[in-house]
Structure formats: structure tokens, C-alpha cells
Design a protein that fits this description.
Length: 143
């Protein structure tokens, strides 16, 4: 018979007992009630985070929609370091005037040229009277 040396495995000695993150509810009514409130709190915090994310996405989409009509691309607005929080009024709504100012600031900051404005009145001049065609006048009988 051979005897193999057995390694002694030290038994763990905890100086401080570890507590689980969530205490299992005991049979006492106060512990069950506390666990119920903690569960409701976690659910409510999750819903709050979801709604906050949706609100941020909606605000960003509105800012991009308003900035789409301005002289810079939306990407330039974000590249200039503008945040959605800077474009909100005191009530937390997106302020169109602040969006316009931020677009102008982004164009100046990034050195973007202003696109030419279209003159919609070109070609709409009113004729003073009937004009004579010089080509036909060359071949018409002299008066």
C-alpha cells in the first residue's frame, strides 16, 4: 500500500461575513414589504431610464430637423461641439432660435462658406413695351 501525501487545503476564514446584494425576504411581513418596494424601485428606475433615452432621442431628432433648413449640415452642428442640452429653453423644450444660432456659430467655427442664395426674381422683369426683333427688322422694308 502506498500512501500519497495529502495536501491540506486551508479552510476559508472570513473575518467579515459577506452579505448578498439582495437580502432574501424572511417570513416577517416587514422584510417582504421591503423586498416588494425594492423590486418596484428597480422597475421604476428602469422605466425612467428608458423614457429618458427616448426623450433624448426625440430632442436630437427635432434639433436635426430644425437644423436641416439652415445653411449647414447637421453633422457640422455636432462637429462644432454643440450638445442638445445647449439648445433647450427653460422648460426643457428645443428652442428653434437657439438651433439657428448654433448653426450659424457652427458655420463660423468650422469656417464653412455660406451657400449662394437663389434670387427668385431673376427672369421676371416686365417688358416696357413690345420689343422689335432685330433680325426681322433687318429684312423688313424700310420706312
Amino acid at each position: 500500500m502506498s500512501t500519497m501525501p495529502t495536501d491540506k487545503i486551508p479552510e476559508p476564514t472570513d473575518a467579515q461575513p459577506t452579505e448578498p446584494d439582495e437580502v432574501e425576504p424572511d417570513d416577517e411581513p416587514s422584510d417582504r414589504e421591503a423586498a416588494k418596494y425594492r423590486r418596484r424601485l428597480r422597475e421604476t428606475e428602469g422605466e425612467r431610464d428608458t423614457i429618458s433615452t427616448q426623450l433624448d432621442a426625440s430632442r436630437r431628432a427635432l434639433v436635426e430637423h430644425l437644423a436641416g433648413g439652415e445653411r449647414v449640415k447637421v453633422e457640422a452642428l455636432w462637429a462644432a461641439g454643440t450638445t442638445v442640452a445647449e439648445l433647450l429653453d427653460d422648460d426643457g423644450a428645443v428652442d428653434p432660435d437657439l438651433v439657428r444660432k448654433a448653426c450659424t456659430n457652427a458655420a463660423e467655427t468650422l469656417g464653412l462658406a455660406r451657400p449662394p442664395r437663389v434670387d427668385r426674381n431673376q427672369g421676371r422683369s416686365q417688358a416696357v413695351g413690345p420689343t422689335e426683333n432685330p433680325f426681322s427688322a433687318a429684312f423688313s422694308p424700310r420706312r
